[in-house]
Amino acid sequence: MLSFALSSCEEVITLDIDNEKPQLVVDAYIDWKKGDTQAIPVVHLSYTTDYYSNLPSPKATGAAVKITTYHSEEYILQEISHQQFANIFPPTEYPTVSNHIGGTIYAFLDGITPVLGRDYILHIEYEGEKYVAKARMKETAIVDPSRTQQNDNGGIFGNKTEARFFFNGFANEENAYLVRMKHKQKEDRYTLDDKFISDQKFFFTTNGFQEELKKGDQIYVSLYRISYEYKQIIDFLADVAINDQGRGAGPPSNNIPARILGNVTHETNPKKNPLGAFRVGQYSEFQYIVK
Length: 291
Hints:
Layout (H helix, E strand, L loop, with lengths): L2 E4 L4 E4 L9 E10 L8 E6 L16 E5 L5 E7 L1 H7 L15 E4 L11 E8 L2 E8 L12 E6 L5 E9 L7 E8 L2 E8 L7 E5 L12 E9 L1 H19 L18 E2 L8 E15 L2
Parallel strand pairs: 3-17
Antiparallel strand pairs: 1-2, 3-4, 4-7, 5-6, 5-8, 6-7, 8-9, 9-16, 10-11, 11-14, 12-13, 12-15, 15-17
């Protein structure tokens, strides 16, 4: 965080930051809800903005975007409006991971029929440059309702109601997950992986919610299967979001203070690799009512 509050005199110091040329950001994903037969591929193209700017990203219109597979499948994504996106993915359902602030959204609205273990290749041609990415569809885990625990004497001081949720990962595979929990209008999200877990038994809690849980409250959980590489990106952006909120910028924005590269690459020149990533995977949902 580059804005420091000095408690002795409440003075806020804003540091001058050299602003580079706006960088292309690719936020692409195929989020497949477990149990559904189809999923809608989405690609959001935007630009980085000045660190202290709260303005939305400029648009990135006119791109040619498609997704292919090694099984002769080809899906051409079309540009859609932010309102169309909101109609397809209502905020109350929050099936996607990213906050879209400005930029341009592309989607294949007819949907595709995903296949577990299949590789999906993203192709983007924009302003004379070509980018490509590949990701494999992986099965997600399911929260086990029978193992859910509620503790009415939880928290640091033993006066907080908390719920603990459990699920099993997959043996002999890389296990990384993004957890999203929603309570009323507040949302908490964080990541898990198996680097320090030997038995693939995971759990997470509601401790991140600031508001007290009360009897009858509903908690909505989405559990995304992600790659180790994507987890690193999410962890980095979470730190950026904390810094944004610390300086009063509101929700996560496009002002990323460091260059973070994902799995999207320029076809011929690595120096032109964009920021962002292409994510492919299942997600499962779970609802819990506080007792």
